[in-house]
């Protein structure tokens, strides 16, 4: 008898505290009407709640111009949901030449205006695009 009484409470509390079965995802992919690339299988920006996950932007040149081009692409990705570099909380940088990136870090710093995110820099042997030398991905938080 006590199990019959407990069953409704268990059902009510389990549904009240359960998570949604699916998360709401909003996507942006380089101003394309198709919000994701189905050939490679990714989208440039994925928004879940107030968090933006930004896929890596790449360059074939580790030069001031090449680095600026990457950060300008990231700026467009952030702007797709009304964000700026002030919203960035995490940066992952992958390069085939970490020493050259260290020398040219002043280019990157201009975009953050002295408000730097948590960052990880990794030297790798190669990126997805064989000719690419630098790829940067971001995580940004939007105000609630």
From TrEMBL:
The cross-references to Gene3D superfamilies, in alphabetical order and at most eight, read: RutC-like
Q: Which InterPro entries match?
A: RutC-like_sf, YjgF/YER057c/UK114
Signal sequence extent: 1-18
Domain of life assignment:
Bacteria
Q: Which CDD domains match?
A: YjgF_YER057c_UK114_family
Q: Mention any Pfam family matching this sequence.
A: Ribonuc_L-PSP
Gene Ontology cellular component annotations, sorted alphabetically: cytosol
User: By what name is this protein known?
Assistant: Translation initiation inhibitor, yjgF family protein
Alphabetized UniProt keyword annotations: Signal
A GO term, aspect molecular function: deaminase activity
Q: Which family does it belong to?
A: Belongs to the RutC family.
């Amino acid at each position: 008898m006590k199990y019959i009484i407990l069953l409704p409470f268990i059902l009510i509390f389990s549904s009240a505290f359960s998570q949604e079965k699916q998360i709401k995802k909003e996507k942006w992919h380089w101003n394309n009407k198709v919000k994701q690339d189905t050939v490679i299988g990714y989208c440039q920006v994925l928004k879940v709640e107030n968090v933006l996950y930004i896929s890596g932007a790449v360059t074939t040149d580790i030069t001031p111009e090449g680095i600026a081009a990457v950060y300008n692409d990231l700026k467009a990705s952030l702007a797709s949901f009304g964000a700026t570099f002030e919203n960035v909380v995490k940066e992952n940088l992958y390069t085939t030449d970490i020493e050259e990136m260290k020398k040219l870090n002043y280019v990157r710093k201009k975009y953050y205006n002295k408000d730097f995110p948590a960052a990880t820099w990794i030297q790798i042997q190669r990126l997805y695009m064989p000719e690419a030398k630098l790829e940067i991905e971001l995580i940004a938080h939007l105000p609630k």
